[in-house]
Specification:
- The structure is a single chain.
- With 179 residues, the protein is an alpha+beta fold.
- It has one domain: Gcn5-related N-acetyltransferase (GNAT) (Aminopeptidase, 3-Layer(aba) Sandwich).
- The chain is 31% helix and 32% strand.
- It has a 7-stranded mixed beta sheet with strand order 1-2-3-4-5-7-6.
- Helix 1 crosses helix 2.
- The longest helix is centred in the first third of the chain and has 16 residues.
Length: 179
């Protein structure tokens, strides 16, 4: 499975694949900001808007298999002028057909490497407490900064869940290696 950077503008086929991936995540209970049922059209609109409104320096990675996009993760630089060293990791998604094969770990390692090359030294993210991603992040060296109770609702729209906030400090990459 190849992991590659997806740069806007994104073609219709990739937008549809990303939408299918998001719908699959919500249908399988992932807490990724949406309530079920999520339509392909709504998911595609979200992706189109997210990609077009991304800040300079944002990174979108996708993993492809024979059927199309099977995984994705994003990196968004902090907006604040006093935080040029920090970025947020968002929307790590792996389609059910690609789970339990180490793809989530590979996507995270690849986005961390891309962040390091871009000069970021501190990454943050949040995830649902008790979710498989919480265990993944801990396993690959992310540090829990704490838990926020009742942070969001599960895709069912009624069940609140806690969020765990994580951070990871990255080693600096020499300037010549960033070029």
């Amino acid at each position: 499975m190849a992991i590659e950077r997806l740069d806007p503008p994104v073609g219709d086929a990739d937008l549809r694949d990303l939408a299918r991936l998001m719908v699959d995540a919500v249908e399988s209970g992932a807490a990724v900001s949406f309530l079920a049922p999520l339509t392909l059209e709504r998911a595609e609109d979200w992706w189109r808007g997210t990609l077009s409104a991304s800040r300079p320096g944002a990174i979108f990675l996708v993993a492809r298999d024979a059927e199309g996009i099977v995984g994705t993760v994003q990196l968004h630089p902090a907006w604040a002028p006093n935080q040029p060293h920090r970025a947020e990791v968002a929307k790590l998604l792996v389609h059910r057909r690609g789970r339990r094969a180490g793809l989530g770990t590979r996507l995270m390692r690849t986005i961390e490497d891309a962040a390091r090359r871009a000069g970021f030294r501190l990454l943050t993210l949040d995830t649902k407490r008790g979710d498989v991603t919480e265990h993944l992040y801990r396993r690959i060296g992310w540090i829990s900064a704490g838990t926020i109770p009742g942070y969001a609702l599960d895709p069912d729209g009624t069940t609140p869940h806690d969020a765990v906030i994580f951070y990871k400090e990255l080693d600096r990459v020499p300037l010549q290696d960033r070029l």
